[in-house]
Specification:
The chain has 197 residues and is mainly alpha-helical. It contains ten helices and four strands. The protein has two domains: 65 residues, no CATH class; 104 residues, no CATH class. The chain is rod-shaped. It starts with a strand and ends with a helix.
């Protein structure tokens, strides 16, 4: 939510009371002085930590009723996007390449320039991307489909492994790509650059 915080009436009084009333510990008082009706809760947490105070100090001020969130300043996170067949066209731009979501229904065939023995490998790479990567698969499938040489396919394999590692983990990515690694043996190339397996 991360609202903008302001001092409450009790917070104002706590700062004005030098003797008697509520006597605040130094760290709480210092942080309360920083609440100005312009800083968000997360900014105040970061400030508290930078001053050597615990991260939950802002929560204590809230619990004590010395500060409050200003209504309507909360940051509401957007719900995750769920793919549906009738979803509107959404354009995703990555590395100067834009792909419309409408391409999801249109299957781009593997390049006919790719050597014939590698075309089934490219198809299998596309299937793995499609099964495990969600929207990221659109870009990778397109990249794999446009591979005209073995080198380009190997570079697409590196990108596929990195994406799978981010989506799952390194061991699972290696497991998913075992057949691909066998079909694209490393010949005359640096293995570390070609396939990190």
């Amino acid at each position: 939510m991360n609202p903008i915080l302001r001092k409450t009436e009790a917070g104002q009084q706590a700062l004005q009371a030098r003797e008697g009333g509520v006597k605040l510990p130094v760290r709480l008082r210092t942080l309360l002085l920083q609440v100005d009706g312009q800083k968000r809760q997360e900014q105040l947490v970061q400030l508290a930590v930078s001053l050597g105070s615990p991260a939950d100090l802002v929560d204590k001020l809230l619990e004590m009723g010395l500060v409050e969130g200003i209504a309507g300043t909360e940051i509401v996170e957007a719900p995750p996007i769920v793919e549906t067949p009738a979803a509107p066209v959404v354009t995703q731009v990555v590395a100067n390449e834009s792909v419309a979501e409408s391409d999801a229904g249109r299957d781009i065939p593997v390049s006919s320039k790719l050597p014939e023995h590698l075309q089934p490998v490219a198809t299998q790479m596309r299937e793995i991307a499609d099964a495990h990567l969600g929207l990221t698969a659109l870009l990778l499938k397109r990249r794999i489909s446009h591979c005209d040489t073995e080198l380009e396919l190997r570079q697409a394999l590196i990108a596929l492994k990195e994406a799978l590692t981010k989506a799952t983990n390194a061991d699972r990515a290696t497991e998913l790509l075992t057949d691909i690694a066998a079909a694209l043996p490393v010949i005359g190339m640096n293995r570390a650059q070609t396939y990190k397996g």
